[in-house]
Amino acid sequence: MTVVDQITKLIVRLNMQVGDTHPFRQGILQFTYYQNSGAARSSFQGNGRLFGVIAVAFITIVIFYRNKQTSNHRWMDVGLAFLVAGAAGNGVERLLFGKVTDFLQFGSGQGIMNIADLSINVGLLVVFIQQIVLSKLRKKA
Q: Among residues 5, 20, 77, 102, which one is catalytic?
């Protein structure tokens, strides 16, 4: 996932100018090139490298946590893998450039994201669902 993220960002940087918009599916998806030096939804602008360091710390903590676990929860591992891949994809760009390349704009919303952001969202969803399932299983036991 991290490789796909980096390749798509490179394609955007090589073929678009910041601010360019190219409709792909009218009303569903358009490609809009934006550089985000902050966090989610462009908050905390100008702190890109700091968020890169935070991404490295997050990845380290997740790997450490996972290596300490003795239980085998496959879906938790899947969710954590998506989270780590997303953090790595954006973390690399933040450390190298101090900003990330965003280009996916769904619907007419204001948010613009990238593959790493999608990976993080999928990871959070999978981890959340896994926690609900585990909670219900523990209550039955």
A: 102
CA dist 17 → 45, 91, 102 (Å) = 20, 22, 12
Between CA 78 and CA 130 the distance in angstroms is: 10
CB-based contact 8:114 (threshold 8 Å): yes
Among candidate residues 5, 20, 77, 117, the one labeled active-site is: 117
Q: Is there a catalytic annotation at residue 117?
A: yes
Report pLDDT digits (tens) over 51-60.
778 888 889 8
Domains of the chain: which residue ranges? 2-134
Written as one letter, the residue type at 28 is I
Looking at residues 16-31, what average pLDDT do you find?
91
102 is catalytic: yes
Whose CA is closest to 102, among 16, 1, 3, 24?
16
